[in-house]
TrEMBL record:
It comes from the Eukaryota. Residues 13-70 form the SS18 N-terminal domain. It comes from Hucho hucho (huchen). This is Ss18, like 2. InterPro entries: SS18_N (IPR007726). Belongs to the SS18 family.
Length: 85
């Protein structure tokens, strides 16, 4: 089962670390290989479920990347408005 399919009660509680990200990347590699194999055999319908899992994993990894970018950016306050006299 994909690590992206986390039960609702555990969502937001999982530790996102390099190991978790690497597991997802490894799983994505395997999914791509599986999808490719099915496509080469002319069995496109069988690979739909794997494409859906791959899509969810990629979206999840993108979400992690976006969140980590906001953590890395310095927190700045909005510029002060200048009042015209």
């Amino acid at each position: 089962m994909s690590v992206a399919f986390v039960p609702k009660r555990h969502r937001g509680k999982a530790q996102i670390n390099q190991e978790t990200i690497q597991r997802l990347l490894d799983e994505n590699d395997q999914l791509v290989r599986c999808i490719t194999e099915y496509m080469q055999k002319g069995r496109a319908m069988e690979c739909v479920q794997y494409q859906q899992i791959l899509h969810r994993n990629i979206v999840y990894l993108g979400t992690i990347a976006d969140a980590s970018q906001s953590w890395l950016q310095p927190q700045t306050s909005p510029p002060m408005e200048r009042h015209q006299h």
